[in-house]
Amino acid sequence: MYNSIDATLEKLNDRQREAVQITEGPLLVVAGAGSGKTRMLTVRIAYLIECCHVDPSEILAVTFTNKAAKEMKERVAGLVPDASGVTLTTFHSFCCMLLRRWSKYAGFEKGFTIYDESDSEKLMKNCLKELKFDTKTFPPKFCLEAISKAKNELIGPESYLENCNHGVGPTDIAIQKAYESYQAALFKNQAVDFDDLIFKAFYMLNNNTELLNRLQNEYKYFLVDEYQDTNQAQYRLIRMLSSKTRNLCVVGDEDQSIYSWRGATIRNIQEFAKDFEGAKVVKLEQNYRSTQIILDAASDVISHNNSVHPKRLWTDKEGGELIKYYRAIDDREESNWIVSQIKKLMDSGRSPGDIALLFRMNSLTRTTEQALQRERIPYEVTGGTKFFDRREVKDILAYLRVIDNPSDSISLERIINTPKRGIGAAAIDKLYEKGSKNLWDGVALEGSEKSNSKVGSFFKQMISFMEAASELKVHELCKHIIDEIEYFEYLKKDDPETYEDRKTNVESLVSDIRYQELDNPDLKLHDYLASVALHADADDVDEKSHKVHLMTFHNAKGLEFPVVFMVAMEEKIFPHSRSEDSPEELEEERRLAYVGITRAKELLYMTAASKRMMFGQFNSNLTSRFISEVPKELRDDIKTGYASGGMTSRYGSESSGKIYSFSNKTSPFGTRPKSSSGSPFTFSAQTKWASSTKPKETIKDDTEPGTMVNLKEGVTVIHNVFGHGKVMSVSGASLDDFKVTINFERVGTKTLLLQYASVRVIK
DNA sequence: TGAATCGATGTTTTT
DNA sequence: CATCGATTCA
Which of A65, A230, A406, A648 has a CA-to-CA distance to A195 between 20 and 30 Å? Predict the structure, then answer.
């Protein structure tokens, strides 16, 4: 066994080997994109077991997604014979496990239900109603955001106000009240939200020395992946756990920090050396993924941020293809161009599975999906409307959740009248009263008093499900419920149009349970429900599939593809409009762009559209600054072929002369589920389309940005309509979208298309 | 109670 | 544009 580890070590570069072999004490590994960090981490675990004789059960490794955990587990298993004892999971799953194991210490009566965002929102709405707060001035989302932020900093409702470091205002007082009431409601429901998992696990250990000691003795070696994405609570938790042995190895890259909006704080990585005295630092800078051109582009883009430790990735793969930039007329044409390029790539022998299309938002995928369907190119969307968020799936899950935890009033509210039982809002209110604010108690009381009433038969049915739950496997129970409540009949009656799709989704849910029961024959209902709650979209990206991958930049983190298209690279989309006024958020957008670029191994495309259908109308946006930040020597700018014909006829023939005719509900795309993940949820592509699209030839053009040398930020100009003004900013990557934002003395700030604007520089 | 309709409203990223 | 919510009517 030593031999195999020795051989594995030899394949690492010096830095990686160093990171593996510094096993004792705090260690920060700064791991640039594609620098073989997963390899280093897995070898490190193997090395600990094989060479340092660490018992696998003494190792705790925390990753960001379930998928990363699973992958690492498999890779470690390939290196050492028995790695199954290693605890390798996500922060949330780990905390969930702790809370389950010692639920009494955490203050639960028995189990607990994990609420997702929409559950939390409903609960918060109820709380605000109770408090008689106006949901216009205090939207549930807004309150939840503030509360989430507090929880991520380990601030409970009782200390909320003293931690308002900007001084307490009326809003803070309201939030504090909402926070208190929300926590009380969660407790009443025996439920937790995502943030609670970490928060409660932290305080459970913090308040229970014995338990903490026990865990500190149980785990001796700690690894944290994606350290730049940890929040304060996660950092404090891992610090507490590791404080005894201090064998903490964290791996991260500031430049890939893209979750600050979720409470992640870059300070954790920046202050690591201060937080953990005597910490060693190892930098991995050799990149094994991308060509030099791609790396240069990435470095140039990220260099516009003020990075604390600037680093330069390097590779021995010199040169590479230039980054292709295409600006389309509109989003449809953009999609068509992308698809024509994909077809070319496929003709030259690429698998569709080598290709990824990355978007800033999930909603942006639609046009491209249609183009791919038309050409019958297999593709797979990750993210968007999650499978488990679909109405019909949530309905069935809600039944399971109530069976598992009847205190969960949010789920109970959902199913009490689904299918229709004639128990409406007024009746529900009464039941809440009857059960002294506990819906299930109300149902039980009413149900036993009047067993023949509507509520009575519902109650009886639920009791029978609960009894069945102890005898049936989870998937059998699920099927039993679907039959008993005549759910499919309800779906058909509710909306015949979508019936088939919904039925399929419900069946997929049963398959999913069954699938999990194959792996784990003793699957408990609440474990299944927890796995659903902690499931992430990114968990089921199948990189080995032979389908084009469509996903957000966020979901692409940690993945790599031979060919990457960065789609819809326009200002207001990417960087997102809401990040414009905050330099910090803008930097985060730039890091996101950096993540996108560094996903590509060989070929990188960036596309934009001059106008785009959004929210029902056309919008025109400037080309993203992230394109201009790639030096022109690294780019191959391709001019749109619209002006020289090529596209016009095709649009014309397809939509009887109207250039833009957008499909609506009657389109052959129907109501296909938007998102679907790896097995067992797959949907087949539509085959109704019969059309072949000739790939459009593209016309090279040497137009470059920066030709208007004297027109730059700060100069004063005169416009023949608006008069004098000062140039605020100039943007755009080619002549036809070169735009200038000018603050005019008379009419204020305007953004003009330079092509048409008659401005003269006067100073 | 429930269906239907109108209107506002909100649209990032997600463990 | 689509979804959601409140309001209205049967």
Answer: A406
User: How many other CB atoms are there within 10 angstroms of residue A171's CB atom?
Assistant: 14
pLDDT tens digits, residue range A165-182?
778 888 888 899 999 999
Q: How far apart are CA A337 and CA A607, in angstroms?
A: 9
Outline where DSSP puts E strands in A137-210: 191-192
Q: In the predicted model, what is the mean pLDDT of residues A348-366?
A: 93
Phi-psi bin for A246: left (phi > 0), alpha (psi -120 to 50), beta?
A: left
A425: Cβ under 7 Å from strand B?
Answer: yes
d(C-alpha A222, C-alpha A234), whole Å: 13
Task: Tell me the CB-side half-sphere exposure of residue A340, using CA atoms within 13 A.
Answer: 18
Distances (CA, A) of A375 to A92, A235, A340, A368, A686: 41, 48, 9, 11, 10
pTM: 0.83
Whether the CB-CB separation of A280 and A26 falls below 8 Å is answered with: yes
A599 catalytic? Reply is yes
User: Is A336 in contact with A369 (CB distance < 8 Å)?
Assistant: no
Is the CB of A117 within 7 Å of strand B?
A: yes
CA to C1' distance (Å), from A115 to C4: 21
CA of A74 to C1' of C5 (A): 48
Contact A289, A263 (CB under 8 A): no
